[in-house]
Please model this.
Amino acid sequence: MQTLTAGPDSAHALNATSASMQHSMILGIAGEVRARIAAGNDICNLTVGDFDPKQFPIPETLRDLIAGALAEGNTNYPPAEGIPELRRAICDWYARELGIRITPDWVVVASGARPVMYATYRLFLDPGDEQLFPAPSWNASYYGQITGAKAIPIPTLAEDGFFPDPAQLPAFFRTAQLFSLNSPLNPTGTVIAPDRLQAIALALLAENRRRAVEEPDRRPLMWMWDQVYWQLCFGEARHVHPCALVPDVAPYVVTVDAISKAFAATGLRVGWAVLPPPLASAMKALIGHIGAWAPKPEQVGTARFLDDAAAVTAWRVGFHAALRTRLDLLHARLSALGIPHIAPAGAIYLSVRFDAFGRPGLDGQPMRTNEGIRRWLLEAAGIAVVPFQAFEMPEDTGWFRISVGAVSVASLAAAMDRLAKVW
Model:
């Protein structure tokens, strides 16, 4: 038996882009938390943007449909763009719930939302191109760095739900090639207002019309609209698609979506992009080259599930109630403690400002950074959270993301009891 060892020059094999690749701060924190839990520490883990199947199992109907598709022998390669049944079902779902009509040649299916996000960066950015995103934002600079793009964060305000001010955008749009926006927003749990979204769509449309006249040889500005949480809107918040508000912007919009968050199905790996057919053809080729196909049984089962409007609606009612119970508990307890936060609106997140600057930290010295506050919360209250530095906001503001997808109501209540004792 030979034991293999890495040679001293292994790391030198990486090219410049790979050698400088950023690693996820969220995954780093999650690994630390898992190690502490494994060591026997009582930790309420609010770091992961995922669902614990014990708390949030996938819809039974979807589970049974996938099992049935597997039993039918759907184990061969699917088409690179996705099976026709699923692409048609997505079109019908969007017409039914979003008020936009597309044909299946607009849809490219992949193994989750990440491959089509990566493909969007690859298709529309050259090295040195500017990519825009509001800060905070999920993973925007990571994907941009892989393509050699120049990351340009757009500053936002908490009172605006951390969404960009449309009046800011024309200046940013003038030099950029890709703009990304997500709603409901990861990490904040906020939902963009329809009038703000409409103003953003009109600004992007105006920039592309300007380019057509003044810079006809220049590529248009593309918009990656990430709506993977769109089924999770609460209270008065409602999700709208930019193309339903401004249909003329459709040639420039790449919609990214998946079943991962809508149906607590993160591990099933079914996602898709919706974009104009000539662009969809290029994305299909790229997805095919990297083999990022969603498994065929999951595609078949998802298509059949989306076609069952009653089953989708019934699932959503129960799912929303379970999420709202957790988010409302946090909202009430944080309010009672006087801890600033944004009331739940969408997704599985809550934005919380733990303003503990100046208080004694673990070393007895005044806390000056988000990282110091994060570690203090972990040790003193057994609460694991993610600072907004993980979402393109380098400043120490006291803002953190709380995620409720992997915790029980009892665990949340106990964590808030611990927090109340030390806050």
User: Anything to note?
Assistant: The CA atoms of residues 342 and 351 lie 6 Å apart. The chain has a mean pLDDT of 95. Residues 309-337 form the longest helix (29 residues).
